[in-house]
């Protein structure tokens, strides 16, 4: 994608299923071409919590669902240990096509560039606009830098609940009146390690890295309780 390419232009007023259908034909950047399919977010429209990863991996690209490969299995275990039911959450990615370099029969993950994040961002904004989440969890640096700040450091700033206004959601910064369920509410953001980073952690440090992820997710579980 060149700098001049336009970001995606999602339709409005179509709900998550309408967005998913539209995103299936997204050509806003070049990643669509070698990828198998768009991997849109998944979860109920009533979800109070949204998890944002980086981009689909090899298995997600083949199956068309986010976090269903090795990183997804680790995420599922950590969610269970923190007392969060994945079926209550909405899980998505900052970029919705798999970026990779072919190497023989393998496809090697490549981190998406700023141009891919920029092209894909309107889909994420549309997901937030429909879901109006109470808590957004960034899984890893790519999501945190895209949604919080380019200077965000997971190692330093992880595990803290920060007040946050989702891009694309207007004036979400006040608590709702008790009698107005549709009023905007405060959204919270928390960033934590990407599950793939835990899988890459050397054996001797992996349990501690996993426990730290569960501790961060427990903060989220308590915020939702
Ligand atoms: N890693 C991600 O960031 N997202 C997925 O969906 C799978 C692996």
TrEMBL record:
Residue span, Uracil-DNA glycosylase-like domain: 40-213
Protein family: Belongs to the uracil-DNA glycosylase (UDG) superfamily. Type 4 (UDGa) family.
InterPro entries: UDG_Type-4/5, Ura-DNA_glyco_family4, Uracil-DNA_glycosylase-like, Uracil-DNA_glycosylase-like_sf
Pfam families given in the database record: UDG
CDD domains found in the cross-reference section: UDG-F4_TTUDGA_SPO1dp_like (cd10030)
Taxonomic path: Bacteria, Bacillati, Actinomycetota, Actinomycetes, Geodermatophilales
Keywords: 4Fe-4S, DNA damage, DNA repair, Hydrolase, Iron, Iron-sulfur, Metal-binding
SUPFAM superfamilies, sorted: Uracil-DNA glycosylase-like
GO terms for MF: 4 iron, 4 sulfur cluster binding; deaminated base DNA N-glycosylase activity; metal ion binding
Protein name per the record: Type-4 uracil-DNA glycosylase
GO terms classed as biological process: DNA repair
